[in-house]
Amino acid sequence: MSPKELMYIEDALSHEQFLAAQCQQAAQSLQNPQLRQYVTELANKHHQLFKQLYQLV
After folding, report:
1. How many Cβ atoms are within 10 Å of 16's Cβ, its own excluded?
2. pTM for the model
């Protein structure tokens, strides 16, 4: 893997980690159970994407 490709993956990892954390934080503050569930699912998807990207490194 080239240094540039590694840099792109590291950048994507950072973004996925940030998005997962933001979704988790938002879900905790939501009162609507359906919306909270949806945002929690988004957080889980971002966490899964993070794990998939991490395996590439």
Report:
1. 20
2. 0.87
Alpha helices in 1-32 (DSSP H): 3-29
DSSP letter (8 states) at residue 32: -
Q: What is the CA radius of gyration of the chain?
A: 14
Over residues 14-47, the pLDDT tens digits come to: 999 999 999 999 999 999 999 999 999 999 999 9
Q: What Å distances lie between residue 43 and 4, 7, 18, 24, 35, CA to CA? A: 28, 23, 10, 6, 12
CA distances from 19 to 3, 11, 53 (A): 24, 12, 14
